[in-house]
Design the sequence.
């Protein structure tokens, strides 16, 4: 084939513009992956600062640091930035770096679109962050933007809607790219059922993105026309329905939850076998479980809104469907434990993160099962119990999985080992402070503290003090993470090609760091 | 029904076990667990909650018992050689079927509780609750009583210029008053944005949505003051619109109703410009006061 020849030619052709132009014009999956990851880390700190404003205000009862309106802006922005700015781009960054390396492809299938889908993001988030400076401040209706409250907001809501559209375009383009890459660019012999699990979970995530993001776009567009063009989709005085917004929002929002966690499952499924030195247990059941979760994610949305007063049949259906998700999720956890069983286990930093994800995510999963039980949900709904639940899923699930992934693949990408001692310190600080921050919030919720309140009754004081202290520790510990990453990029002990002695997969057959263009000649998978 | 008995007994055993796990504070005023229930529904929810907690705890201990054993015993530093197995159909079927059966076991009592919660028939008193930014309005539809209920905590306490009182942020000027031991139905709606009416000890939380009338009910045995909060983000002062319910013995409640109606009749000019209240007072004379123990 001609491709082999041209590919060979290109291998010696990795000159590219330097400086700013390299990053603006790049179509290289490694460069774009790096930009996504840097962007994600920056947003992680921006969103984290907002979380610290929230926790500073909640340190004591009474209003001390911010007024209630700014507090609402902080909770809204913290969520939007962490979800759309930190977690989603972070996973796309890992996908850009790893999917071509793992399936033996020279690059993503649509490199120019890849460049565009990244470069939309800085503009989207400039709009979103800029909304804080408009008259009346930033969006304050919560990241869920429930109508009619969101109809009340100022220009910030319009800017938020616009930026959500841009983020949505970016995500859908990125997802299309991933689907096309996986279906068309696998190396010879890399059948679907031989793909590494990270690739599988991302393939399914990409389909969820393509299906879910346009639904959000529809919801916010209807909101925009309600705000400015006289429609009444969500206004009962004009024949509209405020609950309709919630149904549409959560039809996007629940698949979104799995968009935020499935790639983390993939990462864990790469890391655990490496450090257990044993193949992943139940590969095909992992694939089926992921597919099952993805399907179920589309038929459970109304469990986010049990209190809106649905008909009994609806409440029962969504309760049963939601409880069912525990089955495939359980299968995944059991498979990870079975992978560890009779392995030859070591505890490098990526493994510590992976194990703590299994452990802490399961706490979030079990509290999720509790939330599925409709009568009990009436007590938990919109309290700190829910806040604790989704931080156990999103922080100790998604974010800590990404941190594990960073330690796991950085030596491959940079050619340098990170400082193992510092990495372990970072892990323990993160794990301990995370639990100090969020575990007490379960008790706060059960005791009756609603979420999204800037001030609280006196019986909630003690746990809020503990939670705030933990949050500041957790925030500070992440500076160490940034330091370790920068230090590793700049230098360090030379990493071997295989990096980890239990590592298995195409990316480990490449040099560390890999050349600018890899697999120009496709490898052959046995 | 036999299964109801069994689930009740199971839930009771689960409650007992969980209480001992949580320690003495489990049933404390505001402890580590859900608050002490004051209605049969809240009691059912607490038992359900404790039962799920127990199931989750057992699953957690078993799964992570196995994991931590492996982390201890199958370490490379202890010289453990890795096995090579990568699947077991039997095991995979077992750990798919067992969780499914556990879920069915949880679904049965949950469904039963939900059916009881949704049964708002045969209420003896109906009160309409309307959420406003940022206060509640209560209307006794058959008694012609209506009033607003707003936060009573002074600004000086919120702004830390004065020491905070015992019921900081959970106190109102006019609590909604209901009779003890009667099934009271609340019709919940809102006037501007979505709010949510929650009294934890009643096990009642329902969104107040413009254009919707949601129904919930509570039957509270013990007279006293019960406190809760708005639980749906409703704007700037979302954290400052508490719910306070005063439960009175039937005779005290009747006296309260008479007093409200009397003061309304006596008043030539309403104290506050409240057109709905005026309208309610005008139609009041035609509707009979709630008779003690009346069954409708």
Sequence:
């Amino acid at each position: 084939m001609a491709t082999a020849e041209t590919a060979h030619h290109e291998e010696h052709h990795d000159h590219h513009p330097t400086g700013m132009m390299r990053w603006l014009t790049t179509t290289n999956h490694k460069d774009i992956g790096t930009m996504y990851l840097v962007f994600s880390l920056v947003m992680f700190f921006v969103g984290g600062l907002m979380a610290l404003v929230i926790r500073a205000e909640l340190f004591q009862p009474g209003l001390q640091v911010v007024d209630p309106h700014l507090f609402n802006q902080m909770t809204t922005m913290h969520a939007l930035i962490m979800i759309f700015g930190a977690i989603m781009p972070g996973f796309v960054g890992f996908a850009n770096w790893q999917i071509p390396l793992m399936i033996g492809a020279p690059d993503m299938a649509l490199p120019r679109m890849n460049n565009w889908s990244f470069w939309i993001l800085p503009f989207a988030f400039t709009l979103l962050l800029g909304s804080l400076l408009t008259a009346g401040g930033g969006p304050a209706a919560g990241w869920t933007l429930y109508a009619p409250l969101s109809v009340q907001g100022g220009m910030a809501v319009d800017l938020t809607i616009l930026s959500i559209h841009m983020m949505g375009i970016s995500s859908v383009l990125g997802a299309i790219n991933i689907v096309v890459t996986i279906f068309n660019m696998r190396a010879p012999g890399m059948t679907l059922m031989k793909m590494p699990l990270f690739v599988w979970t991302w393939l399914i995530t990409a389909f969820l993105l393509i299906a879910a993001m346009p639904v959000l776009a529809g919801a916010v567009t209807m909101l925009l026309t309600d705000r400015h063009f006289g429609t009444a989709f969500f206004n009962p005085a004009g024949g509209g329905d405020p609950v309709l917004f919630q149904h549409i929002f959560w039809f996007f929002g629940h698949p979104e939850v799995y968009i935020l966690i499935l790639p983390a499952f993939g990462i864990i499924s790469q890391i655990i076998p490496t450090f257990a030195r044993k193949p992943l247990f139940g590969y095909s059941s992992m694939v089926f479980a992921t597919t099952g979760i993805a399907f179920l994610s589309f038929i459970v949305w109304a469990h986010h809104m049990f209190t809106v007063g649905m008909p009994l049949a609806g409440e029962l259906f969504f309760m049963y469907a939601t409880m069912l998700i525990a089955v495939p999720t359980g299968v995944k956890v059991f498979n990870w434990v079975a992978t560890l069983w009779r392995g030859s286990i070591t505890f490098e930093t990526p493994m510590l993160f992976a194990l703590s994800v299994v452990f802490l995510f399961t706490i979030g999963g079990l509290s999720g099962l509790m939330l599925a039980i409709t009568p009990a949900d009436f007590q938990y709904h919109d309290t700190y119990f829910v806040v604790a639940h989704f931080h156990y899923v999103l922080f100790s699930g998604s974010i800590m999985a990404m941190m594990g992934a960073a330690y796991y693949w950085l030596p491959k990408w940079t050619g340098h080992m990170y400082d193992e001692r510092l990495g372990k310190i970072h892990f323990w600080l993160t794990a301990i402070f995370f639990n100090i921050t969020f575990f007490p919030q379960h008790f706060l919720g059960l005791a009756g503290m609603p979420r999204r309140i800037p001030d609280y009754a006196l019986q909630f004081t003690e746990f809020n003090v503990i939670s705030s202290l933990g949050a500041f520790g957790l925030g500070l510990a992440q500076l160490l993470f940034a330091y370790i990453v920068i230090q590793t990029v700049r230098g360090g002990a030379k990493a071997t090609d295989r990096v980890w002695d239990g590592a298995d997969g195409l990316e480990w057959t490449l040099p560390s760091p890999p050349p600018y263009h890899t697999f120009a000649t496709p490898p052959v998978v046995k | 029904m036999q299964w109801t008995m069994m689930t009740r007994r199971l839930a009771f055993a689960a409650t007992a076990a969980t209480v001992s796990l949580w320690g003495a504070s489990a049933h404390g005023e505001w402890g580590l667990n859900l608050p002490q229930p004051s209605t049969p529904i809240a009691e059912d929810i607490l038992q359900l909650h404790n039962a799920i907690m127990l199931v989750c705890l057992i699953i957690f201990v078993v799964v992570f018992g196995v994991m931590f054993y492996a982390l201890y015993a199958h370490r490379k530093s202890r010289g453990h050689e890795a096995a090579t197995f990568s699947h077991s159909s039997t095991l995979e079927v077992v750990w798919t079927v067992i969780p499914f059966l556990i879920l069915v076991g949880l679904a049965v009592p949950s469904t039963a509780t939900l059916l009881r919660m949704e049964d708002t028939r045969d209420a003896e008193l109906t009160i309409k609750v309307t959420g406003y930014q940022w206060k509640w309005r209560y209307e006794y539809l058959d008694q012609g009583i209506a009033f607003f209920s707003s936060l009573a905590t002074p600004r000086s306490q919120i702004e830390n210029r004065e020491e905070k009182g015992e019921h900081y942020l959970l106190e109102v000027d006019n609590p909604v008053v209901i009779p003890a031991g009667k099934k009271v139905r609340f019709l919940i709606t809102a006037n501007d944005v979505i709010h949510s009416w929650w009294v934890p000890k009643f096990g009642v939380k329902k969104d107040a949505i413009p254009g919707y009338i949601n129904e919930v009910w509570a039957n509270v045995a013990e007279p006293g003051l019960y406190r809760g909060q708005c639980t749906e983000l409703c704007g700037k002062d979302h954290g400052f619109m508490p719910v306070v319910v005063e439960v009175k013995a039937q005779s005290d409640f009747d006296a309260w109703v008479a007093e409200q109606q009397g003061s309304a009749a006596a008043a030539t000019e309403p104290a506050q410009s409240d057109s709905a209240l005026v309208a309610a007072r005008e139609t009041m004379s035609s509707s009979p006061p709630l008779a003690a123990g009346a069954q409708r």
Notes: The first helix of chain B runs from residue 2 to 22.
